[in-house]
Amino acid sequence: MWDRPWRHEGLLIAIALVAIVVAGCAGSSSVSSPPPSPSSLASPEVVCDGSQFQPLPSLTCGPAIAAALAVLAPGHPPIIREEFRWGGLCPPGAPCAPPLGNAGIVIVTFASGPSVFVYVSAGAGGVVTASSPAPYPSGY
Q1: HEC sequence for the chain
Q2: Phi/psi zone of residue 74: left (φ > 0), alpha (ψ -120 to 50 degrees), beta?
Q3: Do the beta carbons of residue 71 and residue 116 sit within 8 Å?
Q4: Rg of the chain taking only CA atoms, in angstroms
Q5: Closest Cα to residue 122, out of 99, 101, 94?
Q6: Mean pLDDT for each 10-residue chunk of the chain (140 residues)?
Q7: Which candidate, 33, 47, 55, places its Cα nearest to that of 79?
Q8: What pTM was computed for the model?
Q9: What pLDDT does residue 41 have?
Q10: Which of 16, 27, 81, 104 could form a disulfide with 109, with the two C-beta atoms 3.0–4.6 Å apart?
């Protein structure tokens, strides 16, 4: 083998080329991460109704907001605010029924376009259901 030095050099060159190719492949990735969805660009402000109920309510802020977000149309603008309130829509200063601890609304404010609201309620076993989103009336 040593009587043919070119074979030894050829083997070293082949090993060097393989090492360069492997290093190049390890340094770059052909898979790129997907761009963030519009609503995940920034954390929205979350506002939860602070009313106190006795006994404790069956509907709470986190599950109510989660149910409301699940019924929003795909591709909606980024969300900047999520607000949960017990009870229904009630104009300021109007005589409204007192809220119960198992139903409320979630108001979603987008970075652009009109806000929407969703009725949410907790049923048997704590399952939270949500209505279809509707435009949130101004002045409420």
Answers
A1: CCCCHHHHHHHHHHHHHHHHHHHHHHHCCCCCCCCCCHHHCCCCEEEECCCCCCCCCCCCHHHHHHHHHHCCCCCCCCEEEEEEEECCCCCCCCCCCCCCCCEEEEEEEECCCCCEEEEEEECHHHCEEECCCEECCCCC
A2: beta
A3: no
A4: 29
A5: 101
A6: 48 41 39 45 89 86 97 96 93 84 95 97 92 93
A7: 47
A8: 0.69
A9: 60
A10: 81
Which amino acid appears at position 106 of this protein?
Answer: V
* pLDDT on residue 55: 82
Q: Which structure tokens are listed for 38?
A: 């519009």
Q: Token digits for 128?
A: 């939270």
Q: How far apart are alpha carbons 112 and 95 in whole angstroms?
A: 32
